[in-house]
Write a structure and sequence with these properties.
- The chain is of the alpha/beta class and 312 residues long.
- 36% of the residues lie in helices and 17% in strands.
- A 7-stranded parallel beta sheet has the order 3-2-1-4-5-7-11, sandwiched between helices. A two-stranded parallel sheet has the order 6-13. The chain has a two-stranded parallel ribbon with strand order 8-10.
- Strand 2, helix 2 and strand 3 form a beta-alpha-beta unit.
- 40% of the residues are buried.
Length: 312
């Protein structure tokens, strides 16, 4: 299969590209900043190509969607690690909605529908869900700002997509080695600051990057159980509270004790780092009934094994 990955130059896109090319599939990455040819072994073998797009309008890149065995994975969108100002929230929305609408517009001109369309979304669409247990059937809050509003418009922009089967992945926190999010938490743990954040009771729905890739491959119909069209929660079956997450990280780096981070301290630090404090202070317990019913088996269903694997 030929798989076009929109916004595929980031961490998740690279992990997915590696898995696809290892299985012999062709990958085309739609990116605003194409990388030099020959930068990676897959490029040298001609299995991965970067194609420039502006992530806003249909253009010459749309020709990459034509063919009998073509699938699309849409990961395009600005990173959420930014101050939650009205301008930032508008840009987070615009970067996702405009890219998705451009892809939908391009798909409508295809003679054949795309075989599969896998659309990125986020469990943050449910905002701070407190103790509620969420799955694919849970309703979306109405009228909430920030990521609920961003993600709801992001998913709605899919309307009219020309595809045989479309799967929307509402993904939790993806754990992967040598990424800013995990490295920042591990650094706090090593410095003795890895205690609970805020109350420590907020839920963290997480997933090992390899399981995330395997879910995408299943959604593409390339391996694993067949997944139905519609929403799929891409999150491990055992969410943890923030206090347990931090305790697991402390154990992983050999620290018994970690100073807590009260909410006011986190908000001050987030102001200095120009990030969103709610990324650490809010949470949700989201698991997938669809994956369970399909018979999908996680390689890393428990946090301990996931962290040990990543640090190894």
């Amino acid at each position: 299969m030929k798989v076009v990955i929109a916004g595929g130059s980031g961490t998740l896109g690279r992990a997915l590209s590696a898995a696809l090319t290892a299985a012999g599939h062709e990958v085309v990455v739609l990116t605003r900043s194409p990388r030099p040819e020959g930068e990676h072994p897959e490029r040298q073998r001609g299995m991965v190509r970067d194609v420039r797009w502006d992530a806003r309008t249909a253009g010459g890149w749309a020709a990459e969607l034509a063919g009998e065995e073509v699938a699309l994975v849409n990961l395009a969108g600005r990173l959420v690690d930014a101050r939650p100002t009205p301008a930032t929230i508008a840009d987070l929305t615009r970067s996702r909605v405009e890219a998705t609408r451009a892809l939908v517009e391009a798909s409508r001109d295809l003679e054949r529908p795309l075989r599969r369309w896998v659309q990125a979304s986020t469990t943050a669409i449910w905002s701070d869900a407190s103790e509620e247990r969420l799955d694919e059937s849970s309703p979306i809050p109405i009228g909430l700002p920030q990521m609920t509003g961003v993600a709801e418009q992001w998913e709605r922009a899919l309307d009219g997509a020309h595809s045989e089967r479309t799967v929307i992945l509402r993904t939790g926190v993806v754990l992967e080695a040598n990424t800013p999010a995990l490295d920042r938490l591990l650094l706090l743990a090593r410095l003795g600051l890895g205690g609970p954040v805020g109350t420590g009771r907020q839920w963290v729905s997480w997933i090992h990057v390899r399981d995330w890739v395997r879910i995408v491959l299943a959604a593409l119909g390339l391996e694993g159980p067949a997944l139905p069209a519609g929403v799929v929660v891409a999150s491990a079956p055992h969410p943890v509270r923030n206090a347990e997450l931090m305790r697991t990280l402390r154990r992983a780096v050999g620290r018994r004790v970690g100073l807590p981070t009260p909410a006011p301290v986190l908000r001050l630090g987030a102001l200095l780092l120009r990030t969103d404090p709610d990324l650490g202070l809010t949470g949700r317990h989201a698991t997938s009934r669809v994956l369970e019913q399909a018979g999908f088996g996680f390689e890393h269903p428990q946090l301990d094994s996931a962290i040990q694997d990543l640090l190894a």
